[in-house]
Amino acid sequence: MRIANLAGRLVLVTAGGAVDIDEASGGRFGPDPSAVYREWDAFVAWAASAPLPAGRTFDEASLGAPVTEPGQVFAIGLNYRGHAAESGVEVPVEPPVFTKFRTSLTGPRGDLELPTDTVDWEAELVVVIGREARRVAAEDAWAYVAGLTLGQDYSERTRQLVAPAPQFSLAKSFPGFSPIGPVVVTPDELADPMDLEIGCAVNGEQVQKARTSDLVFSVPELVERLSAVLPLQPGDLIFTGTPGGVGGGRSPQRFLRVGEEVSTWAEGIGELRQRCVPGTPYTTASAS
C-alpha cells in the first residue's frame, strides 16, 4: 500500500489515483491521516479484502505530511560511515538519538524558510511504526513497522553546535525543517526495504547519494535498540540518519541560499521538493 495525506484526508494512492479511505470504508476508518496507525492491523485486513473504487486524479501539491501527529519523533545521528567521517568522529557503537519536535513537520512540497545563512540539508529514510513495540528483537522488527517514507532533516548548524552544550533538537525543529512524504509505503511494496537508493540535489546539483543498506544501524536494529529503552507507539517516526555529502562537511562549507530548490528522493517512495525563501532572522543569545 501507498498511504498519503491529500488535503488533510487519508487516502490510498493506487494506479488510478487517490482513494478516500473514509468514503471507501463507509466511515469505518476516518479521514485523519495519523489515526489509522492506531488501528493498523484492522486497516491492513480491510484494505486487503475491500473492493476499492477507482482512484481520483490529484494534484501532488495538495499532499501533506502523511503522518501529522506522531507521539514521538526519533532521529538518529551519524548512521552512515561517510557522514561520520565528514563530521570528524568515529562510527558510533550505539545509535546517537535526538528528536525533531513535531511542529516542524510539513508536507513533501513547499517553501523552506531560512532563519539564518547556515541551514544544511540531510536526506533521510523515515520509519513509521504500526504496532506498539516493547523490547522487540531485530529479527521480529519489521512486523512492527507500518511503512517507510522519506524525510529531510534540515539543520541550522550554528544553533546545533552552539557552545557549551550543542542543541541538536532545537536546531533541527524550526518550522518546516521536517518535511516527510510524499507517501508511506508498506514494506511488501518494495523489492528490498533494506536496500533503497536515497539522495539529494540542490538546484540540480547532486549532493548526496547512497543506499540504505549502508546504514550503520539498520531499521530492525534501530527498532530493537529504541524499544529496549521505551515503548514505540503506533504512528511514531524514526528518522534513520543521513549519508555523507551534507553542506557542513564540505570544504569550503556550503549552506542553503534563498532561491535554491532542494530535491530529495528515495527509491520506491518518491520525492520531496522545497524552495528556499527568506525566513524570520534568528540570532543565538551568545551571538547577540
TrEMBL record:
Domain Fumarylacetoacetase-like C-terminal span(s) in chain numbering: 73-275
UniProt similarity note: Belongs to the FAH family.
Keywords: Hydrolase, Metal-binding
Molecular-function GO term, any one: hydrolase activity
Record keyword Cytoplasm present: no
PANTHER family linked: FUMARYLACETOACETATE HYDROLASE DOMAIN-CONTAINING PROTEIN 2A, FUMARYLACETOACETATE HYDROLASE DOMAIN-CONTAINING PROTEIN 2A-RELATED
Record organism: Actinomycetospora aurantiaca
Descriptive protein name: Fumarylacetoacetate hydrolase family protein
Highest taxon in the source lineage: Bacteria
One Pfam family of this chain: FAA_hydrolase
